[in-house]
Design goal:
single chain, about 100 residues, mainly alpha, DNA-binding
DNA sequence: GACATGACCGCAC
DNA sequence: AGTGCGGCCATGT
């Protein structure tokens, strides 16, 4: 199967209220080091796909989009709607991170 | 094939 | 705490 499909699969099973970094997403898809590629995949998701792309943020807890942009607002509102709180424009992956193999 | 470009990451300053 | 740099992988020119 193609690498992008592996990304889609993992993305699809990220629970509500949880989030992962691009690097984690790639790693969970058995593609360590493919963080940059993960971003590429999210950028070109099939039109109309129902995948929770908003649950993916950068490793430092900030979002990939510039503050104030449309996408930024959309992603943030969706995350907050799931109970995720932002502090100084960033969320705590330590608190909301999804790590299936741990805990 | 050589560069440039990204929804990135980690670590060094 | 912010910035820079090298490394990373697929795509586009």
């Amino acid at each position: 199967m193609e690498n992008r499909e592996r990304i889609w699969q993992v993305l699809h099973r990220i629970p509500r209220g949880k989030a992962v970094s691009y690097g984690q997403l790639a790693k969970l898809a058995a593609l360590p080091g493919y963080s940059r590629f993960a971003g590429h995949v999210l950028k070109n998701l099939p039109a109309g796909s129902r995948l929770p792309w908003h649950r993916v943020v950068r490793s430092d807890g900030r979002m990939a989009f510039p503050r104030g942009s449309e996408q930024y607002q959309l992603q943030r509102s969706r995350l907050e709607a799931e109970g995720i709180k932002f502090v100084n424009g960033k969320l705590s992956l330590r608190q909301y991170g999804w790590y299936p193999e741990e805990r």
